[in-house]
Amino acid sequence: MNNADFRQHAHILVDWMADYLENIEQYPVKSPVSPGEIYEKLPDFPPESSELMTAIVDDFKKIILPGMTHWQSPNFFAYFPANSSYPSILAEMLTATMGAQCMIWETSPAAAELEEQVMNWLKKMLALPSHFEGVIQDTASSATLCAILSAREKQSAFKVNFDGFSHNDFRVYCSNQTHSSIDKAVRISGIGQNNLIKIEVDEKLAMEPDKLEKAIRADLADGKKPLCVVATLGTTGTTAVDPLADIAKICQKYGIWLHVDAAYAGTALVLPEFRWMSAGLEYADSFVVNPHKWMFTNFDCSAYFVKEKDVLVRTFAILPEYLKTQVQGRVKDYRDWGIALGRRFRALKLWFMIRNFGVRGIQEKVRFHIKIAQNLSKKIEQHVDFELMVPTVLNALFFRYKPETDQDYDVNSLNERLLQGLNASGSIYLTHTKIDSEFVIRMVIGQTYVMEKHVNNAWKLIQDVAGEL
């Protein structure tokens, strides 16, 4: 392919992209293919000779597209969204075109300095503590691992990196509702799954501070070393908000690293009326929020903030001869701020999005999502055959179908069948969680371009399918 061919096919594909986004509601939200169905359509051997781009694109449409779940559909209500937006897509196109490896300042000065300033913007937008310094990671899982590794090194006087564990007696604490990335991080960090202490939650499914302190005291009495507490603002299961201020006091009292996981719900801090969630954040050692979830920025883009950047850098910095430069020490080389050496130019899409939306535009869209979720929450609450399982705090709803009838039935099985029927329809996509062993349908209203009509249509479909069971 030469430049002229590239230009021709790029125009064709951009037109397809615009058509796809304009007509995305015509596709089944969740892919209906069976396991192995796509694989069987792919040849066992790569082509020996060059193939025409027209043939490759045609196979993309015929083979690949039917096997895709359409996350950017306004009828996607599953998981947490992996949002996109028009300005973010355009930035990703530029990023792919330049193909820059932004590991250090010298390999792309603009990438490093834009990242620094965009993180400062985000800090101000979310009213984060002024002493925080930020870096873009790929995901919150990586950011959380960075936090636990940093806590490990600070606690061990940076000896584990060099000597390994001579005796591991560290303990990490989180609620029993915390994301599985915490479990993975303690495994990878060498601390171990058995040293992750899950703290019980209250009726709102938020961590109970008194039980946290009780666990810490018990570990100290047993000769253990409390290392890190992970507090969550908006748990994955139910968007529960841990009482950060109370947890922070405990961490301050015992000298424990406090990491705050606000991967999804942290975006709501752009709204002054939701900053009650972050009370006490000034005492945290690290904080993560994912613009690629609810801030309309293409995956992957995870904003990680730390109180002590020197601890982060000292944990990860390695300086081989081939990475030494004349500007060493005068610039931010972000490859020292995380696990990976290689780094994508992620700041560009966040910059494009913030500038195109404006802070007010972001606030308006987040408020709108919360508003239409609250509207649906009232309808579910008022319906005789449905019940909300937890209060709707933000834009995620947790409910189940429990009709009044003389017949005996299993509520969990009924709701599982309801969920399967809804997803099989292709019209919407929902997921589930379990609350005290109860099967609960989970609906997140956060896709960038979702409108109230999509939510109303989804609610009608939910009632219709339920009525047929």
What does this structure look like?
By secondary structure, this protein is of the alpha/beta class. The protein has three domains: 3-78, dopa decarboxylase, N-terminal domain; 100-344, Type I PLP-dependent aspartate aminotransferase-like (Major domain) (Aspartate Aminotransferase, domain 2, 3-Layer(aba) Sandwich), CATH 3.40.640.10; 365-468, Aspartate Aminotransferase, domain 1 (Alpha-Beta Complex). 42% of the residues lie in helices and 12% in strands. The protein is built from 15 helices and eleven strands. It has helices at residues 3-22, 37-40, 53-64, 86-98, 109-125, 140-155, 160-163, 180-188, 209-221, 244-254, 291-294, 309-316, 347-382, 411-424, 452-468, and strands at residues 133-137, 170-175, 196-199, 225-232, 257-261, 286-289, 302-306, 386-388, 396-401, 431-435, 438-444. The strands form two sheets. The chain has a seven-stranded mixed beta sheet, with helices on both faces. Strand 2 (170-175), helix 8 and strand 3 form a beta-alpha-beta unit. Helix 9 runs parallel beside helix 10 (244-254). The termini are far apart.
How are the SSEs placed, and which strands pair?
Layout: H1 3-22, H2 37-40, H3 53-64, H4 86-98, H5 109-125, E1 133-137, H6 140-155, H7 160-163, E2 170-175, H8 180-188, E3 196-199, H9 209-221, E4 225-232, H10 244-254, E5 257-261, E6 286-289, H11 291-294, E7 302-306, H12 309-316, H13 347-382, E8 386-388, E9 396-401, H14 411-424, E10 431-435, E11 438-444, H15 452-468
Helix pairs in contact: 4-13, 5-13, 6-8, 6-12, 9-10
Which short descriptors sum up this protein?
11 strands, globular, Aspartate Aminotransferase, domain 2, 469 residues, Aspartate Aminotransferase, domain 1, alpha/beta, 3 domains, 15 helices
